[in-house]
Amino acid sequence: MAALTHQVPRKQVTDAITLLIDNLVNIKDETGEFLLRLEDGRVIDTKGWNDWEWTHGIGLFGLWRYYEQTGDAYAYDVMVKWFDDRFAAGTPTKNINTMSPFLTLAYLYEQTGDQSYIPYLDTWAEWLMADDGLPKTEEGGFQHIVFNDENPGELWDDTLMMSVLPLAKIGLLLDRPHYVEEAKRQFLIHIKYLFDTKTGLWFHGWDFNERHNFAGALWARGNCWVTIAIPEIIEMLDLPEGDAFRTFLIDTLAAQVKTLAEHQDESGLWHTLIVDPTSYLEASATAGFAYGILKAVRKGYLPRHYETVGIKAIQAVLANIDDKGELKQVSFGTAMGSTMQFYKDIALTSMPYGQSLAIVALGEFLRSYI
Questions:
Q1: DSSP state, 348?
Q2: 275 burial level (CB within 10 Å; 0-12, 13-18, 19+)
Q3: For tag attachment on the chain, is the N or C end more exposed, with fewer CB atoms within 10 Å?
């Protein structure tokens, strides 16, 4: 990455990350447009920082990865305060997405040894595993329950990032190997039903009830969770070379990244429907792809020549951060679509996961200065 590091001073990258973090914790939904009002009276603020959804879980993940590398005290304080405040307010309804903050909590427990975290890690992971906890699809898949829909019989690619990675990490911390084996099983079943053998990309979802992949959308942000999750699980489990599960995952990732490289826009971004150039360009997925690709190259999971794809994506991410630290061209949270047009019509707005994915991407890029 030497060529780009000579073009972009390290301070420019760290300044961008500082702006992104500030924007992350100060995002406001001034109009109330993005508040989710449930039938039971609950209101979920998916845009602001002071609530509990997958958007916040991904935000925490970005902060953790940056803190892990730099020791940044502000990032650490933001994470700890978020958990303190949320635990004081009370935990939300358990679902696939509200599980996502526990990946960061597991890392914080490993760092601090704070025993008060254990009951949360234990209870939520047991809910994922239990027969009377999270409902399972055919073949034991994690049904993608969200705040407003049980989505019976459905697998979504988001699940690997939101619930399966936390389960694996908690299994390692609490010495529960059956959690780890279940996490591995979930990767396999999601690959079985979501991997598109024609392109190497991933469909957004699968429905066991009607046996289809919904619109057949090769949606960018859904794909970026996979680009992140595969290197994460290989590293997390310290899978050795020659391990069959590791080899299978790397082959799956390589097939995806090959097609990503072929469809990257000249700007460095990807379209929200990766193979459809009439869909808009989307920056949060681009940041996720940048992180996963650069990390996979660094770890030796992907060939070195894919580094140029990741670098081009980093340049695009930097170009889309405004002077207030907002990553532009970020699509709002996206439910399962039954048509391609559904994905094209999703609104663009600042969101915590956009900030976070930019933070992890730039944080991974920072390693090139070392």
A1: B
A2: middle
A3: C
d(CA 353, CA 56) in angstroms, rounded, equals 7
The count of other CB atoms within 10 Å of the CB of residue 88 is 7
R_g over Cα of the chain: 19
Tally of CB atoms within 10 A around 78 = 19
Q: What global pTM score does this model have?
A: 0.94
Per-residue pLDDT tens, the chain, 370 aa: give them: 555 555 778 899 999 999 999 999 987 766 656 555 656 666 666 678 888 988 899 999 999 999 999 999 999 999 999 999 999 999 999 999 999 999 999 999 999 999 999 999 999 999 999 999 999 999 999 999 988 789 999 999 999 999 999 999 999 999 999 999 999 999 999 999 999 999 999 999 999 999 999 999 999 999 999 999 999 999 999 999 999 999 999 999 999 999 999 999 999 999 999 999 999 999 999 999 999 999 999 999 999 999 999 999 999 999 999 999 999 999 998 999 999 999 999 999 888 899 999 999 999 999 988 7
Nearest to 351 by CA among 326, 368, 334, 370: 326
